[in-house]
Automatic annotation (TrEMBL):
Sequence similarity: Belongs to the UPF0225 family.
SUPFAM superfamilies: NTF2-like
Gene3D superfamilies the record matches: 3.10.450.50
Record domain YchJ-like middle NTF2-like: where: 41-138
Protein name: UPF0225 protein ESP51_13900
One Pfam family per UniProt: YchJ_M-like
Superkingdom of source: Bacteria
InterPro entries attached to this UniProt entry: NTF2-like_dom_sf (IPR032710), SEC_C_motif (IPR004027), YchJ-like (IPR023006), YchJ-like_M (IPR048469)
Length: 140
């Protein structure tokens, strides 16, 4: 049975991760969203944040947003279904880098039967502080 239009879909731990890494959720973004680990690179943080949008996990999105640019709260739209993430460019953002940039396109559908398709293209900046990566903002 599909999820109610006003609910975010649950992600099966054994299913392919929504970030399209090719790994299963329990071995990819699942541990990050559960708080069991921190993303080791900026691209992995980008993937896990995308997965948090899929799951409607505003708690994780806020926790991984740098305090200098983080909003007080997020209101995610449960009718928006994210279905594809393409990482297009990565600059730095490795385990030992202090900063990173990830350019991506995320595709979504909004609405029910006659859903409209859209995409979000963004160049995101990330910073690593005390060994932990944070999303800072979008540039350009």
């Amino acid at each position: 049975m599909p999820p109610a239009p006003d609910a975010f879909p649950a992600i099966d731990p054994g299913a392919r991760c929504p970030c399209l890494s090719g790994s299963v959720f329990a071995e990819c973004c699942g541990p990050f969203l559960a708080g069991a680990a921190d993303a080791p690179t900026a691209p992995q943080l980008m993937r896990s944040r995308y997965t948090a949008f899929v799951a409607g996990d505003d708690r994780y999105l806020l926790a991984t947003w740098h305090p200098s640019t983080r909003p007080e709260r997020l209101e995610l739209d449960p009718t928006m279904r994210w279905y594809r993430l393409d990482l297009e460019r990565v600059e730095r953002g490795g385990p030992l880098d202090p900063t990173g940039v990830v350019e991506f396109t995320a595709r979504y559908r909004v609405g029910g039967e006659r859903s409209e398709r859209g995409e979000q293209h963004e160049v995101s900046r990330f910073v690593r502080e005390h060994g932990r990566w944070f999303y800072v903002d979008a540039i350009g």
